[in-house]
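Question (not urgent): is this output format expected?
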Amino acid sequence: MAAMLMTASQCRMARAALGMTLRELAAIAGISVNTLSRIESEGNVTSRTLVKVQGILAGRGAVFRRDGSVGVAG
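Got this back:
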């Protein structure tokens, strides 16, 4: 089964749950704040960028659930 890509709301929830600002996450991901804002508002971004940001959030403990919710591991 293919990995599920996070939704815009999951990105916002995960970032908030991890206590990260837009600027912080964008800097870590190596993308602009505008690109991250597009991700969080369901704007047009490449799946590669989305996977990159999701991987960073998951690496910091965010858990993306199929029901649309987000948890934080451990």
